[in-house]
Amino acid sequence: MSDHIYKRVEVVGTSTVSSDDAIQNAIRKTSETVRGLRWFEVIELRGDIDGNEIAHWQATVRIGFRLDD
User: Fold this and answer.
1) Which residues pair with 46 in a beta bridge?
2) Is 0.85 topped by the overall pTM?
3) Which band of pLDDT confidence, cut at 50, 70 and 90, is reported for residue 68?
4) Which of 1, 14, 17, 27 is the most exposed place for a label (fewest CB within 10 A)?
5) Could you read off the pLDDT of 36-51 as tens digits, one per residue?
6) Domain span at 34
């Protein structure tokens, strides 16, 4: 059995659609440059209000990945 080492990055995903979409965008974009994504943790969720409506979602997401052996 070998031990594994993990690293994590913190990114902010955005969306005009939903909080879930903001999280998905963060993970999708991170996966373009980082291999082996393993888990995520939503650190903060916030949004921009225009009038009485949510105009924009922002999700701060910590994403973990395993370092190559």
Assistant:
1) 58
2) yes
3) confident
4) 1
5) 999 999 999 999 999 9
6) 6-66
18 is written with which tokens? 């939903």
Asked if residue 43 lies in contact with residue 60, where contact means CB atoms within 8 angstroms, the answer is: yes
Instruction: Please report whether residue 1 resides in a domain.
Output: no
When divided into structural domains, the chain yields a total of: 1
Q: Angle at CA 62, nearest 5°, toward 52 and 42? A: 40
